[in-house]
């Protein structure tokens, strides 16, 4: 067996599993997002309740996983309980390697368990294990520690788990893997919770055959050399993604205080440079990735009233967390911010959605749309990280109607309490940390998962600062072309940080050694096909591009390109969907 | 003759490129034949342990082999004669640092031969090939 073609089907209701060879899917769609999209369409009926047993959880890896460096990502797909539509979230850690080296190309989890359960998955099969003694452990970190002791395979396993947020069905709860990596966006944690699935432990260490040993080693060495010599990779190793705080602040594109502002004189406090200098305690990597972009701060704090008694907490930080829980909430005290990041991590919430929800709530409170009656006595104020930490706990515990409502996301909450103009979500997904110009927001509107990762519009905005902003039609074409190409990268599955290393020739060469033949001129066409299938899924589940809401706030606050014009956004969105449906060769977009 | 040593496990980022390199000596992907292991010290928050053969001067693995399939390697460590090996696994149990691994497919141990192939794929200088005096304790 060269390609990963086995699909592990798990039925939580009946506690049964089976393995099916789906060479048909893997031959055609390569793996990852291409295969997962099709498995989602096969397994998720129209009208499925995202928190019902009909909603499947799909995990898929690809043919480069376990063979080549930087191919360490797992694609998860599901119907999102946050948006009520396509859910897709990627994570690294050891997840992808463990799935593939346990002998699987994809895992499909269906049904729901009546009582709490966790799954132990190996090359020998699946064990359904009682998790009633683990259910209710609030912290995703503690859950990881318990499952680590229960399971074998240290070093070659992944342990995916949820915290209280997932159990309590917060619509933007995440799934954590290897303590610091996450299937963060769109609420996979709540889907786990709805199935009473507390954790998945997957262990694998098998060998993988290749077409030609000599060619494999040659292609490997070429990628390895380019990876360790690449300046981009260096950037992510040295400071990490948080290196972006200062440039965005300087450009005046860093969303601050619910995007009432775009920069702060205090941004340096939460910058990657400052955190690295004062707090960086460790850097870690996903399995089979030399970059080690994961930056972990060591926060040493005294216990009150106990002289010489300290605790040191290791807290992972990335750009998006520093934005959403930092600048977006006006939290520029780095210690307070790290504590807030830690509490979001422990409860198991998506940091980006949580930050944007709290930012909206703070402004709603300022404007009198909500009061301390709703917040159960919490006076939300910019920069007040202690109160925000308490609010995070309330979102998880949902002790009154207000917290139940904001646990459904900012789109939902603002429909009830008002303040839609400053409810910063696109397609129901809370916004990423870029107000770089119009193109980033078009990308959030048109992206299949309404994520900055779909097409990285912010980089088009930033590049255009040196020249001229593309017209709306050209912006749409460039976004679509990028999103099409990213379908290929996430079918292999390689990390988007490695997109410059995995160019077309490298992809063709590595696929060949992995035993997958794909015609060179087919890649863009295939990417487009996958994207269209995602769009088809969305349409079948009620998506209407003409109903996409543009939050007024993004039109009011100046970007580095000045005011973002609504007409520009609308023209680009229309053009994007026109092109997506057209016969035009995507490579020539 | 030089042998593999762990220079500084605190520099390890847990990327496991050394394990993949070890396996790739045989021209394959995956980890079936890897003869060293990087695992967390109880969660990624606490850093990593790099488990490699420490080339004991009086190797327990060699002593317990019932068919003399293991022989002394010049410079430290042992060499496996796969033709003699019966796959009993006693060497795995005998190693106090758990540095003898198992190839389930071949039903034979994976034992480090101190070739140093992994060293060139460690981007953070955790591993090195070094001459070590027989009784010098390496990290």
Provide an overview of this structure.
The complex is a heterodimer of chains A (589) and B (139). Chain A has 3 domains: 6-203, Aldehyde ferredoxin oxidoreductase, N-terminal domain (Aldehyde Ferredoxin Oxidoreductase,  A, domain 1), CATH 3.60.9.10; 230-416, Orthogonal Bundle (Aldehyde Ferredoxin Oxidoreductase Protein, subunit A, domain 2); 430-588, Aldehyde Ferredoxin Oxidoreductase Protein, subunit A, domain 3 (Orthogonal Bundle), CATH 1.10.599.10. The mean pLDDT of chain A is 96. With 589 residues, chain A is α+β, with helices and mostly antiparallel strands. Chain A contains 24 helices and 18 strands. Chain A is globular and about 65 Å long. In chain A, helix 11 (319-326) runs parallel beside helix 13 (351-366) and helix 18 runs antiparallel to helix 19 (457-464). In chain A, the strands form 4 sheets. A 6-stranded mixed β-sheet of chain A has the order 2-1-6-3-4-5. In chain A, strands 8-7-12-9-10-11 form a 6-stranded mixed β-sheet, sandwiched between helices. Chain A has a 3-stranded antiparallel β-sheet with strand order 14-15-16. Chain A starts with 5 loop residues before the first strand and ends in an 8-residue tail after the last helix. Chain B has 139 residues and is of the alpha+beta class. Chain B has a single domain (3-127), classed as Alpha-Beta Plaits, CATH 3.30.70. Chain B is 13% helix and 22% strand. Chain B is built from 3 helices and 9 strands. In chain B, strand 7 (101-103) and strand 8 (108-110) form a beta hairpin. The two termini of chain B are 18 Å apart. The mean pLDDT of chain B is 93. The chains are: A alpha+beta (589), B alpha+beta (139).
